[in-house]
Specification:
The protein has about 550 residues and is mostly beta strands. It contains 2 helices and 44 strands.
């Protein structure tokens, strides 16, 4: 008898045989044998890393190592005991092995072999270099019979004093400050005729000589944007008289009003301290609006008035106080609202646009949600019904900590005194420009431009015909090392620009020097704030990096 199950059984057996014989996708070795990056480190010194400059063929890397580290110290670098590190392509092998102490006093020849056997060679040349930079230069001259001091602005090799035309500078007294291990060819306090440019040199401890030129120029105002920048001060670490920077995560925000910087400490109750905005020196404490004021945030408006926000956990009162200035003895409570919706709290980040005594908007992000709370001020009064905020959902598409939210410390930055106007959202996954009416994303920063953002605080402002976004940009994946990165966002089409674009320099218009400290800043907190000269000829921008310090700059229209 014919077995009617024989044919199906054969077919099933063949199917299983085909399945069993299916081969996995092959994995091919990589051909790349070029290192992705290479750098030197000082052993045992955090963040002491030194990057190379390559030759055209990219077969030689030249790394300058400071003669002393830190540069202003007496700690001489031992070039015979440095650590060479590199990031290699997948499958690649480097010989000799690196990552331990090496004698870098002579060139090191490296051979990198890719996964297919392709080889490339790289010679690493390290050199100890002294510091030949001019730290500061001042000029004293007589103006209307009075001794007048002006500080120089450094631009390339020119040390420029900007003086009004017609002022006699033929008998100016000049002082040039350089590294303590370097020498300058002009005696301190020397009388110099600066009616014409005067050359001088700085010689470092290793014999390098760098030429400079002293110049007196009339200030010329730019028709658009930022011109010359000048560092005002750097304040790092602890100091006496109540003016130190703590290392216990307490300094969380900063505002500027008149002659003062206000630094907020989120102790309970909070502490408000005043610093001189041009020197960084501690002045005095600022009285609290109420004895139990617990705050993470104070912000200044366009006129120097201040708004301070209490932190409100779920079912707590969220309050806003308004000061006319940093010395106002009687701040006014302008808002009290019960937080019954933001389970992780409101008040860790608050931003403002406009004039607190005329028209303004105040944005606060609700931690661990995608919500932005908005209040509008008209004729100096909150106009939201029953003080209840308008709530908008930020256009979150990236996932942060497993949920679609903007984290604990996101920034929502209004760009006009209107709820429907464009705003920026800056949180752990991106910096984006958003349509305030539809909440649709207009553009987002290129990842390479924004860098490792984490919870970077930011500020939006208008200056000399341009619109700017500045934020605290962390360096080397360290939350204890950051600088101010400033971008011209006047044209929305530029917001997504890649650093590889030739026009990038007109977008990322300024990057301040970095400040760093040894204390941990695991929360990634800090702040950035801006104020202006009365005639709007200068903007003053400040960055607070929690547990590290404060740095301030003047941005001019000249």
């Amino acid at each position: 008898m014919r077995n009617i199950y024989q044919v199906p059984a054969i077919i099933m057996g063949l199917g299983m045989a085909f399945t069993a014989c299916h081969k996995p996708e092959p994995i091919f070795p990589k051909e790349d044998s070029k290192p992705q990056s290479i750098w030197l480190e000082l052993p045992g010194v955090k963040d002491a890393t030194f990057e190379p400059v390559y030759n055209t063929a990219k077969d030689s890397a030249f790394i300058e190592v400071p003669y002393f580290y830190p540069v202003e110290s007496d700690n001489e670098t031992d070039i015979h005991k440095l650590i060479l590190r590199a990031n290699l392509p997948l499958d690649a092998v480097m010989r000799p092995a690196i990552g331990t102490l090496m004698d870098m006093s002579k060139p090191i020849s490296l051979e990198i072999t890719g996964g297919t056997g392709q080889k490339s060679k790289l010679v690493v040349v390290a050199k100890k270099v002294g510091d030949v930079t001019v730290k500061k230069a001042t000029m004293h001259y007589l103006l209307d019979g009075a001794d007048t001091e002006v500080e120089a602005v450094m631009k390339d090799n020119d040390v420029i004093f900007y003086v009004l035309p017609g002022v006699d500078v033929s008998k100016a007294q000049v002082s040039v400050t350089v590294n303590s291990h370097s020498t300058v060819s002009i005696a301190d306090g020397a009388t110099v005729n600066l009616s014409n440019p005067v050359p001088f040199t700085v010689k470092s401890i290793d014999g390098i000589v760098k030429p400079y030129t002293l110049k007196v120029l009339p200030p010329v105002k730019k028709p658009y944007g930022i011109g010359i920048t000048r560092k005002l001060f750097v304040k790092l670490g602890a100091a006496s008289g109540g003016g130190g920077i703590s290392t216990n995560y307490t300094e969380t925000s900063m505002a500027v009003s008149g002659d003062y910087l206000v630094v907020v400490s989120n102790t309970n109750p909070s502490k408000l301290r005043l610093f001189n905005r041009t020197t960084g020196n501690y002045v005095q404490d600022m009285p609290l609006p109420v004895s139990n004021f617990y705050s993470f945030q104070m912000q200044n408006d366009s006129m120097g008035a201040l708004v301070g926000a209490s932190f409100a956990a779920l079912n707590d009162k969220f309050t806003l106080y308004r000061w006319k200035s940093a010395t106002d003895p009687a701040p006014e409570k302008i808002l009290e609202w019960s937080n019954t919706t933001a389970w992780a709290g409101v008040g860790r980040r608050v931003r403002i646009y406009g004039d607190l005594y005329k028209d303004a908007v105040i944005y606060a992000t609700a931690s661990q949600t995608a919500d932005i709370y908005k209040w509008r001020i008209h004729n100096g009064k909150i106009v939201n019904a029953t003080n209840t905020p308008d709530v908008n959902a930020a256009p979150v598409v990236a996932t942060y900590k497993g949920t679609d939210n903007i984290g604990y410390l996101a920034d929502a930055l209004p760009t006009a005194a209107s709820f429907s106007s464009t705003y920026f959202i800056n949180y752990g996954s991106e910096i984006a420009m958003v349509n305030g009416g539809s909440n649709a994303r207009i553009a987002a920063f290129n990842t390479d431009a924004a860098g490792y953002i984490f919870h970077a605080p930011s500020v939006y402002f208008n200056f000399n015909g341009a619109s700017y976004l500045a934020f605290l940009k962390y360096n080397s994946w360290s939350l204890n090392n950051g600088n101010i990165a400033l971008f011209d966002v006047t044209d929305p089409a530029a917001v997504s620009m890649s650093p590889a674009n030739p026009a990038y320099g007109a977008f990322n218009v300024f990057n301040a020097e970095s400040i760093a400290g040894p204390a941990d800043n695991g929360n990634g907190t800090g702040d950035v704030c801006v104020s202006f000269a009365p005639d709007r000829s200068s903007a003053y921008i400040y960055m607070l990096l929690t547990n590290v310090g404060i740095i301030g700059y003047e941005l001019t229209t000249y």
